[in-house]
Amino acid sequence: MQQLQVNLTVPVPDDYVLINRIEYEELQTHFLSGVYWTMVDLENRIGKKQVWIKENILYLQKFKKQLDVSQGGFVYYPKAKGEKWSFLASKMSQFLEDNFYTIFKG
C-alpha cells in the first residue's frame, strides 16, 4: 500500500480557539457549577415536557433515590402545592449524560 505524507496548514480565525476535549468538558462543568435549573430550564435543556420528565425520570424509584435532595441527591422535589422544582445543573446534566440509555430504553 502506498502512503502519502502531507503537510497541511489550516487557518484558524482570531476569534476561535482550539482546545482539547478534556479542557472543553472541564469548561462545560464549570459553566454549570453553582447554577440551579427550574423545571422550565430542564424542559428546554432536554426537549421534553414536564409530564414526560416526571414519568420517565423523576418519579421512577430507580432514579428518585439517587436524585432526591432528602436522600442526598441534587433535585429538590416540591413538598407542597406551589413550591417549585430545583435542580443542581451540573449534577443533573451529568446524570442525564450518564443515564441516557437507561432513560430512553424504558
In the predicted model, the low-confidence regions spanning at least 5 consecutive residues are: none
Overall pLDDT score: 93
Category by helix and strand content: mainly alpha
Q: Order of SSEs, N→C? A: HEHHHEEHH
Largest beta sheet, briefly?
Answer: 3 strands, antiparallel
Q: What kind of assembly state do the chains in view correspond to? A: single chain
Q: Which strand-content bin applies to the residues?
A: 5-15%
- The tally of strands reads 3
- Walk across the major sheet and give the strand order: 1-3-2
The N- and C-terminal alpha carbons lie at a distance of: 48 Å
Helix content: 40-55%
Protein name: Phage pi2 protein 07
Pfam family, one: DUF771
InterPro entries: DUF771
Q: In words, what does this structure look like?
A:
InterPro entries: DUF771 (IPR008489). This is Phage pi2 protein 07. Pfam families: DUF771. There is one protein chain. The radius of gyration is 20 Å and the shape is elongated. A 3-stranded antiparallel sheet has the order 1-3-2. The longest helix has 12 residues, at 21-32. The chain is built from 6 helices and 3 strands; from the N terminus they run αβαααββαα. It has 106 residues and is mainly alpha-helical.
